[in-house]
């Protein structure tokens, strides 16, 4: 049994607690449930109490001696950040392509010439499970040191059953050994592998008839994702794959309208996807359809920045009533970062989201995008004791002092797992 932990005197405790259930929209995205001079009591891996320091002093005076006291004076305290969209398990890296893009070759040109996702596909096929575990562990450690305690991860650098299963099994193993909670998504439909060039529908058949049943049968994934993009999977193929996934109990997600407008937002709304990703080129009608269907927009401003593209119109989406989540998209090609704090900063700078909206998008709404809102994403009694202390005095400063990691310490299931030096 570990000692209870009492984090007290926080300059601001952003609880993200709310009476309303479900993903936050419009003005609710700005309600952070702030408590000044706040306290949170962690015990047995969960949150036992949240309130002002005065309230907790009254309630726990008899037990104060048995708790480890953490003085959070002058600090901001938030829930552990949630990253709802990553491709964290992959072999190799693609820094040469970064140079090529800066010299003028486009992301899709590189991919169509056999690089991009195909290059990582080859390197991931070649990597052993042990190598993937070692590389992914390093990335997860970096996430943790940026205050991220829950990470969604996709397969999709295999595109054959063996490698897709290898990626998903790596996630399953890391879920048991790494402090971060990993939430697995099957994304066999990330690209059409070269051996199926010209026979794309045959690859869709393979995904539906051979891969999905095994992935679902072994319970290796909760979500099913598709790269619905011109030159990758059409809306019709995407719909087939996602409907088939639903049949196996996998919840649909869609990489939609990233490079070109392609009806991805509309499709996400039509099939009831839990979230649609990217949306840089989503149509206004598509955004409105998502607001109606309750599909969460998972926006990836670091990807837009890294690809030197205009970011998605997060401001418009929130104003239209779409619940917005944000994510790193951590992957070797279009966004190699593991910094959710940077992503929050970019949400403000590039998408005109407010500092409060950015924090909601990186915590509670991000948890909703991966169906984890019952256990993470806010500081509420009974939830996992995933808490971050930030070396800033309020949530505005967290977004304003941009590009810096303000993490002071990270608590996962009530245990301190990272602490900044000094
Ligand atoms: N756009 C498709 N998939 C990833 C990129 C993967 C890669 O380039 O390796 C994304 O979400 O950005
Ligand atoms: Zn992605």
From TrEMBL:
Binds 1 zinc or iron ion per subunit. Its main location: cytoplasm. Its EC number is 3.5.2.7. GO terms for biological process: L-histidine catabolic process to glutamate and formamide; L-histidine catabolic process to glutamate and formate. Pathway: Amino-acid degradation; L-histidine degradation into L-glutamate; N-formimidoyl-L-glutamate from L-histidine: step 3/3. Fe(3+) binds at residues 85, 87, 255, 329. GO terms for molecular function: imidazolonepropionase activity; iron ion binding; zinc ion binding. 4-imidazolone-5-propanoate binds at residues 94, 157, 190, 258, 334. Its cofactor is Zn(2+); Fe(3+). It catalyses: 4-imidazolone-5-propanoate + H2O = N-formimidoyl-L-glutamate. Signal peptide: none annotated. N-formimidoyl-L-glutamate binds at residues 157, 331, 333. Keywords: Cytoplasm, Histidine metabolism, Hydrolase, Iron, Metal-binding, Zinc. CDD domains: Imidazolone-5PH (cd01296). Zn(2+) binds at residues 85, 87, 255, 329. It comes from the Bacteria. One of its GO terms (cellular component) is cytoplasm. Belongs to the metallo-dependent hydrolases superfamily. HutI family. HAMAP family: HutI. This is Imidazolonepropionase. It comes from Siminovitchia acidinfaciens. The lineage of its organism: Bacteria, Bacillati, Bacillota, Bacilli, Bacillales.
């Amino acid at each position: 049994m570990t000692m209870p932990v009492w984090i007290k005197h926080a300059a601001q405790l952003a609880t993200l607690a709310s009476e309303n259930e479900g993903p936050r929209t419009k003005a609710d995205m700005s309600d952070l449930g702030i408590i000044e001079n706040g306290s949170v009591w962690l015990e047995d891996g969960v949150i036992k109490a949240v309130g002002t320091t005065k309230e907790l002093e009254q309630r726990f005076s008899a037990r104060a001696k048995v708790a480890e006291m953490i003085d959070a004076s002058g600090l901001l305290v938030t829930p552990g950040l949630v990253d709802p969209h990553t491709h964290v398990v992959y072999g190799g890296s693609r820094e040469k392509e970064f140079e090529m893009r800066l010299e003028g070759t486009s992301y899709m040109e590189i991919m169509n010439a056999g690089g991009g996702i195909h290059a990582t596909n080859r390197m991931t096929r070649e990597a052993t499970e042990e190598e993937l575990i070692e590389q992914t562990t390093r990335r997860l450690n970096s996430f943790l040191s940026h205050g991220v305690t829950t990470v969604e991860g996709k397969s999709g650098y295999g595109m054959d059953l063996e490698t897709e299963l290898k990626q998903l099994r790596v996630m399953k193993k890391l879920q048991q050994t790494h402090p971060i909670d990993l939430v697995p998504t099957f994304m066999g439909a990330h690209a059409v592998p070269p051996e199926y060039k010209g026979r794309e529908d045959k690859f869709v058949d393979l995904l539906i008839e051979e891969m999905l049943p095994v992935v679902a049968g072994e319970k290796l994934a909760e979500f099913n994702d598709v790269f619905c993009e011109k030159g990758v999977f059409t809306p019709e193929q995407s719909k087939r794959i996602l409907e088939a996934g639903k049949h196996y109990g996998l919840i649909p997600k869609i990489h939609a309208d990233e490079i070109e407008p392609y009806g991805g937002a509309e499709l996400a709304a039509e099939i009831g996807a839990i979230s649609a990703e990217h949306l840089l080129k989503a149509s206004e009608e598509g955004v409105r359809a998502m607001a109606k269907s309750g599909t969460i927009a998972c926006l990836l401003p670091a990807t837009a920045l890294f690809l030197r593209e205009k970011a998605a119109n997060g401001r418009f989406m929130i104003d239209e009533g779409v619940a917005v989540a944000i994510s790193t998209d951590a992957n070797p090609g279009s966004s190699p970062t593991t910094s959710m704090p940077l992503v929050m900063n970019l949400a403000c700078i590039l998408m005109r989201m407010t500092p409060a909206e950015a924090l909601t998008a990186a915590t509670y709404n991000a948890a909703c995008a991966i169906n984890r809102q019952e256990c993470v994403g806010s500081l509420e009694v009974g939830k996992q004791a995933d808490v971050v202390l930030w070396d800033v005095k309020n949530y505005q400063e967290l977004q304003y002092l941009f590009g810096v990691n303000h993490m002071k310490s990270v608590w996962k299931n009530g245990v301190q797992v990272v602490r900044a030096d000094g």
